[in-house]
Specification:
- By secondary structure, this protein is of the alpha/beta class.
- It has two domains: about 5-45 and about 295-400, Aspartate Aminotransferase, domain 1 (Alpha-Beta Complex); about 50-285, Aspartate Aminotransferase, domain 2, CATH 3.40.640.10.
- The protein contains 15 helices and 15 strands.
- The strands form four sheets. An eight-stranded mixed beta sheet has the order 2-9-8-7-6-3-4-5. A three-stranded antiparallel beta sheet has the order 11-15-14.
- α5 (about 130-135) links the parallel β3 (about 120-125) and β4 (about 140-145).
- α4 runs parallel beside α5 and α13 runs parallel beside α15 (about 385-400).
- The longest helix is centred in the C-terminal third of the chain and has 16 residues, at about 385-400.
- About 45% of the residues are buried.
């Protein structure tokens, strides 16, 4: 018998956990599953810009060997220049680490930071890789609440209450996955002030920074706090519809002097993986070159805007279901009224939904929410598919009991 490492026992990643395994079993039995559980643009016909793909193909001959461990210079320069346009001063290509997606860079940033028992503040609900990676690196995730009645903004008072002597870092996910919240300038300044007062490293996940709707404005945390060490994470997977390329970046900004040892460790970790996937790095320069804006999909009449509006309206028509309208990202995070839908086990609920309606969604506790009354639905599918999915959910909830 080969036992599992003890550090994995408390690590969860329910987006791809038992529910997805059950979906695969049903598919193997011949059932067609409608999957609205992952923010993966390609299966829904949201393709990458052709100009980006052409540049990658053209560069393949030059992408056969290892690159610099941090990534190829032109791509790091393009990322640094994009941060200058956001108002982040003093970022050079040497401050940019490219990675095999943001996921790899999250793990690297935490591996280089945490000793056993160190704590990291993470929003609840969160993108669950953050919580899982903290545990995998020997730390402890401490969740701060976000207020649904305030558009899922972080509760600054609750954040402050969670800070203790072992707290090392504050994670900000903005725009947020799974809620779609886009944080106000005031909220961000409040979070950054807490980091400043308690000497916390700021880790800000801004992978959806360009996917915002209506009058929402995304504020880059690093631009608001030039006096703080901020690690900003982003990439090509969502805005440029290149999820399979696994092309992401981590940008270091603010005072580096007191963090020299940590940054040296980050470079060591980068060296140990040799380098990021080199062909995928060649997508960064054309993607960030300014000719491939996603704005057309987000404005009135644009596909993502129309799908968001339609799905949000339809899901709020289900009795006992209400949903805060997302200002960013690709998800609805509806609430099931506990007085109407008495759910004690939301993972069991989504498995029952899968088995009865062949619809795959994700349960709220999978995003480290402490209550069992939420679901996440991806609105990347066309309107007619969303209608089908939300109709299946409505029929399921009409007579579902635990």
């Amino acid at each position: 018998m080969v036992p599992q490492a003890s550090r994995l026992r408390d690590v969860r990643y329910d987006i791809r956990g038992p529910v997805l395994r059950r979906a695969r079993q049903l598919e193997a039995d011949g059932h067609q599953i409608l999957k609205l559980n992952l923010g993966n643009p390609a299966p829904f016909g949201l393709d990458a810009p052709e100009s980006v793909l052409r540049d990658v193909v053209h560069s393949l001959r030059d992408a056969q060997g290892y690159s610099d461990a941090r990534g190829i210079y032109p791509a790091r320069l393009a990322v640094a220049e994009s941060f200058a346009r956001k108002g982040v001063a003093g970022v050079s290509p040497d401050d940019v680490f490219l990675g095999n997606g943001v996921s790899e860079l999250i793990v690297m940033a935490l591996q280089g930071l945490l000793d056993p028992g160190d704590e990291v503040l993470i929003p609840s609900p969160d993108y669950p890789l953050w919580t899982g990676a903290v545990g995998l690196c020997g730390g402890r995730a401490v969740h701060y609440g976000c207020d649904e009645q305030a558009g899922w903004a972080p509760d600054l008072g609750h954040v402050a209450e969670q800070i203790g002597p072992r707290t090392r870092a504050l994670v900000i996910i903005n725009p947020n996955n799974p809620t779609g919240a886009v944080y106000s300038r005031q909220t961000l300044l409040g979070l950054l002030d807490l980091a400043r007062r308690h000497g916390l490293l700021v880790l800000t996940d801004e992978i959806y920074d360009q996917i915002i709707y209506d009058a929402a404005v995304h504020e880059c945390a690093a631009a608001l706090a030039p006096d703080l060490l901020v690690m900003t994470l982003g990439g090509l997977s969502k805005t440029y519809r290149l999820a399979g390329f696994r092309s992401g970046w981590l940008v270091v900004s603010g005072p580096r002097g007191e963090a020299a040892e940590y940054l040296e460790g980050l470079e060591l970790l980068a060296n140990m993986r040799m380098c990021p996937n080199v062909p995928a790095q060649h997508a960064i320069v054309p993607a960030l070159g300014g000719r491939n804006s996603i704005a057309g999909l987000l404005q009135p009449g644009g596909r993502l805007r129309e799908q968001r509006d339609h799905a949000w309206q339809k899901i709020n028509e289900i009795p006992g279901v209400d949903c805060v309208r997302p200002d960013g990202a690709l998800y609805l995070f509806p609430r099931l009224d506990p007085d109407v839908h008495k759910i004690s086990d939301d993972e069991r609920m989504v498995i029952d939904l899968l088995e009865q309606q062949h619809l795959l969604l994700t349960h709220g506790t999978g995003f480290n929410l402490p209550t069992t009354d939420h679901l996440r639905l991806v609105f990347l599918a066309p309107v007619d598919v969303l209608d089908d999915a939300i109709g299946r959910l409505a029929r399921f909830l009409a007579d579902y009991h635990q």
